[in-house]
Design goal:
Layout: H1 2-25, H2 29-37, H3 44-50, E1 55-62, E2 73-82, E3 90-96, E4 101-107, E5 110-115, H4 118-124, H5 140-153, E6 159-164, H6 165-174, E7 178-182, E8 186-192, E9 196-197, E10 200-201, E11 205-210, E12 213-217, H7 219-227, H8 239-257, H9 260-264, H10 266-273, E13 277-279, H11 283-293, E14 302-305, E15 312-314, E16 326-328, H12 334-341, H13 347-352, E17 356-360, H14 368-377, E18 383-388, E19 396-400, H15 407-417, E20 421-423, H16 440-453, E21 455-460, H17 462-468, E22 491-497, E23 504-509, E24 514-519, E25 525-531
Parallel strand pairs: 1-6, 3-14, 17-18, 17-21, 19-20
Antiparallel strand pairs: 1-2, 2-3, 4-5, 6-13, 7-12, 8-11, 9-10, 11-24, 15-16, 19-21, 22-25, 23-24
Length: 543
């Protein structure tokens, strides 16, 4: 009787799971079960994993129905996975800001320059009816955004996942909420209160506040925490901080899903996602991805934010431009694409744990050593800013020590900067003077000392800074900007706040601290911005 009950429960679970999987991945339930049984081996992701080839998945988060500019991708992230046969799988998350102005090629000879978050929307809506047929299918938004990212980052995007914010909220609620340790307290006085679509609906603002410390968040609170972008405290108004918060929520959700309780709720989670998720991944692809990353240590994941601390600069809003835009220092995008293409140091280089010092010999005084020290640190090598160095026309990668320890780290950096490794001292000879043959203790001591003395110095030359600042051959080749191909819709969005002394507070409390949403604002203000497609998370203006 007990075994029969277990069988029936398992059957119901598998049936619900198959139904939900089939709905999300556009497969009938029987085929969905077959895809899972196949274990993803025949999928495109499974084949690349077997061949140990890099896999790139793009994630696009957008407001969805009822939001102003519903398909503008408010959150953009590329997750790259590098499988290994004899080392742990490497993973990097590359976050991209929505306000980056880039060329968007629509096909059929049409292109324009717009914010990167418009690419997904252009394929999902009929703003550009003359776009290529490839971008007119159900997954056209993801395909157009993928192609745009591929040209900017220099990597092939294998698949995409588009998810609206309702799905994010529903998924968190379906697992009973998530537990997050908030690093810094902050207040955002201009968080969108409701859904604003073309000036209609609730276009007012409210104040939200989060205290540092452990928090248990329901779906609504987690969504607010992930999307908030206007705080002036602790740097939390930056795109970098926002992407970090989103990563924290995703990690917390993953932890819940892989727990015993989370697995039991998986059909409910998939049901909550439902029509709020759009992807070109198959069930087999998803299973192969899960097998690749299920045992990855979260602390080993590289996290890179492309922003105005590295490859981009802001336009100087509001003094120099009408809205907040970001532009690439290198308009050919070659510097960025080369970094992304070489973003994974070899496992051997990571295991060396050799210190890297970055010095600026470019003569520009533009903070190049700090920039590259951070970018190298993001790959999980140990790098520090060494400040200014004597003027150097070319970039140098110099290995100090016995020439063996740190060699893989030096070679990785030499490849990253397109130079040859130089040696500060000649490699040590086979024998060591004063060390009798067969003296094992002395040999071990000498080897240990050599390893501890090894280091790598990168001296950034004038050539690197010229490449970083616009002087490289165009990655786009014959790309031309079409000034006559304009959008089909324009509207103005206005958000306002009302003056009141009444406050309603919603709190989520843990053992040591609480997360508070306070509304409405106690001072009046208004924000009007003109946008062709809306703001994708709060209208135009600075993030």
């Amino acid at each position: 009787m007990v075994s029969l009950a277990i069988f029936l429960i398992a059957g119901i679970y598998v049936g619900r799971l198959a139904w939900q999987l089939g709905f999300i991945f556009h497969r009938n339930p029987i085929a969905a079960i077959g895809d899972v049984i196949d274990n993803g081996r025949g999928s495109s992701v499974g084949q690349k994993a077997t061949a140990q080839q890099r896999i790139n998945i793009a994630f696009y988060g957008y407001g969805g129905d009822g939001h102003d500019g519903g398909f503008l991708s408010d959150s953009i992230m590329v997750v790259s996975i590098q499988p290994h046969s004899n080392a742990p799988t490497q993973v990097v998350e590359v976050s991209l800001p929505r306000d980056w102005m880039v060329p968007i090629a629509l096909g059929n000879g049409h292109s324009y320059k717009g914010k990167i978050n418009e690419a997904y929307s252009d394929g999902q809506t009929d703003s550009y009816p003359n776009r290529a047929d490839r971008y007119k299918v159900d997954t056209g938004g993801g395909l157009l955004a993928d192609d745009t990212l591929s040209r900017l980052l220099g990597i092939h995007i294998d698949h995409f996942v588009g998810i609206d914010f309702h799905a994010f909220q529903y998924a968190v609620d379906a697992v009973g909420g998530v537990d997050v340790v908030v690093p810094d307290s902050f207040t955002d006085n201009t968080y969108p209160r409701g859904e604003c679509d073309g000036g209609h609906g609730d276009c007012s603002y409210m104040t939200v506040h989060f205290n540092a410390g452990p928090q248990h968040m329901d779906g609504r609170t987690a969504l607010i925490y992930a999307r908030s972008r206007h705080s002036a405290q602790n740097g939390e108004g930056s795109d970098f901080a926002r992407s970090k918060r989103q990563q924290l929520i995703l990690q917390a959700l993953k932890q819940k899903l892989v727990s015993i309780d989370g697995i039991a709720k998986l059909p409910d989670v998939l049901g909550a996602l439902g029509s709020h998720v759009l992807t070109d991944l198959g069930i087999g692809d998803s299973k192969a991805l899960y097998d690749l990353v299920k045992d990855v240590d979260p602390s080993s994941i590289e996290r890179v934010s492309v922003d105005n601390t590295n490859f981009l600069y802001d336009c100087g809003y509001p003094a120099s431009c009408s809205a907040y835009y970001l532009y690439a220092h290198d308009t050919s995008y070659a510097s960025l694409s080369h970094y992304v293409q070489n973003i994974f140091p070899s496992p051997g280089a990571l295991s060396e744990k050799v210190p890297v010092t970055v010095e600026d010999g470019s003569g520009r005084g533009a903070g190049a050593s700090a920039r590259w020290a951070q970018l190298i640190s993001d790959t999980h090598l140990s790098a520090k800013d060494g400040g200014h160095a004597a003027l150097s026309p070319t970039t140098q990668v110099i290995l100090s020590g016995d020439g063996t320890h740190g060699a893989q780290t030096a070679q990785y950096l030499a490849t990253l900067f397109g130079v040859q490794v130089e040696h500060a001292t000649p490699p040590a000879s086979a024998g060591t003077a004063g060390t009798p043959a067969g003296t094992t203790g002395a040999t071990t001591s000498t080897t240990s000392a050599a390893a501890s003395a090894a280091s790598v110095t990168v001296i950034l030359g004038a050539d690197e800074e010229r490449a970083f600042n616009l002087s490289t051959p165009s990655y786009y080749g014959t790309y031309t900007y079409s000034s006559t191909y304009t959008r089909s819709t324009t509207h103005t969005t206005t958000r306002s706040t009302t003056t009141t002394t009444t406050q309603t507070t919603t709190s989520t409390t843990s053992a040591s601290s609480s997360s508070t949403i306070t509304l409405p604002l106690t001072s009046s203000s208004s924000d009007s911005s003109s946008s062709t497609k809306g703001g994708g998370g709060g209208g135009g203006g600075p993030p």
